[in-house]
Amino acid sequence: MSPAAKPLPLLEGLGVELEYMIVDRETLSVMPVVDELLRAVADEYTDEVEQGPLRWSNEMALHVVELKTNGPVSALSGLAGVFAGHVGRINALLRPRGGALMPTGMHPLMDPSRESRFWPHQNRAIYDAYHRIFDCRRHGWTNLQSVHLNFSFHGDEEFARLHAAVRFLLPVLPAIAASSPAMEGKLTGLLDSRVEVYRSNQQRIPSITGRVIPEAVYTRRQYRDRILRRLYRDIAPLDPEKVLRHEWLNSRGAIPRFDRSTIELRILDVQECPRADIAIASAVVAVLEALVRGTMTPVADLMGWGIDPLEEIFLAAVREGERAVIRDRRYLEAFGLARDRCTAGELWSHLAGTLLTGSTEDDAAVRDTLQVILSRGTLARRILDRLGDAPSRERIRRVYRELCDCLSEGRMFLP
């Protein structure tokens, strides 16, 4: 999300970014042609093009394109159709090359050590620096597609409330959004393999990602002093030109972007179509609104949570998605659920039923879409149901070709 002209009040500005991989429609091999796609629209090599309400931009991998809102929006209503329309336009541009967009959080067959190609144009120095330091021809760098959500705040008090709410909700996000159960032609045993490789892709400098769950820091000055300065200090010997000395170096699951007064949530896998991504985003926004208002539990109580109990819930959700069992009564009670234990899927059903009660056509569409996810499982679970226990590479191709069709046609993937 690009900066607003001035900081917007708490949750009054939202931004959505969706990443997709470009693949050969038949073989599903990655196609490193994002630069040619953008040139077809802009008539020159560029890293970003404005297309009305959205922008199309590059990522590190030359086969990954990002679609994002062109500045902050006040609500998510109507965005599913907007994103779907742009997916159709891009697919039309790719069709003569035999290409198509493919969704989900990871390519299930890609070998990044062999197939990775990096962006060779503007801002190449950034990618060159990352590759020199971390060796980016690996999963977690060139094989991952995520949804980034941006939430506005204005001033320290709003930052504190929003940061407390985001870090508290973050552990259960894989339980609704996991879509990456396979890697290099094999099932990984995890529903959210993208988050698992994301957790470890910068272990050479552990402070950059931390433990994914952000630390309990609630002022802008404290965040800069305790976290950002440490990142910059730790990477300095490997980045003497200070190419990476920016807020986006921070790779926690949610990061403050003080340059635009937002918190950027990075933990969601891409779904099978924008309809599903926007439905999940709508659920996230609804829960955050309740948490920052303190309607389910006092915000001061959220601020007191350390990383350890949140990380336990988070890692279970990465492994098991909606079937992860939450045994922390205090965590459940903070969401208004007075139980000793329940699955993460049951928690999300409770939250959706409690908070998503709007009467508009968009509200109904969000509820219908979430009902598919909550009743039939995360996309990762539905993919596993279709793949079986030991799928062949050809079976994986058939399933993921259908996922390409779901993206193209704007429909849910059903078991």
Task: Describe it.
The protein is of the alpha+beta class. A hairpin with a 5-residue loop joins strand 3 and strand 4. The chain has 16 helices and twelve strands. Helix 5 crosses helix 9 and helix 9 crosses helix 14. The longest helix has 20 residues.
Summarize the structure.
The chain has 415 residues and is α+β, with helices and mostly antiparallel strands. It has helices at 34-42, 79-94, 112-115, 124-134, 156-169, 174-177, 193-200, 220-235, 274-293, 299-303, 307-320, 329-334, 344-355, 361-376, 379-387, 393-409; strands spanning 14-24, 48-51, 54-58, 64-69, 99-102, 146-152, 182-183, 186-187, 254-257, 262-269, 325-326, 342-343.
The tally of helices reads 16
Supply the number of structural domains.
1
Q: Output the CATH topology.
A: Creatine Kinase, Chain A, domain 2
What is the strand content?
A: 5-15%
Question: What class, by secondary structure content?
Answer: alpha+beta
Major sheet attributes:
8 strands, antiparallel
Q: Which CATH class?
A: Alpha Beta
The CATH architecture assignment turns out to be 2-Layer Sandwich
> What is the typical, i.e. mean, pLDDT?
97
Q: What is the percent of helical residues?
A: 40-55%
Rg estimate, integer Å = 20 Å
Number of strands: 12
Which residues sit in consecutive blocks of at least 5 with pLDDT less than 50?
none
- Backbone shape: globular
N- to C-terminal separation? Answer: 34 Å
Give the SSE order as H and E letters: EHEEEHEHHEHHEEHHEEHHHEHEHHHH
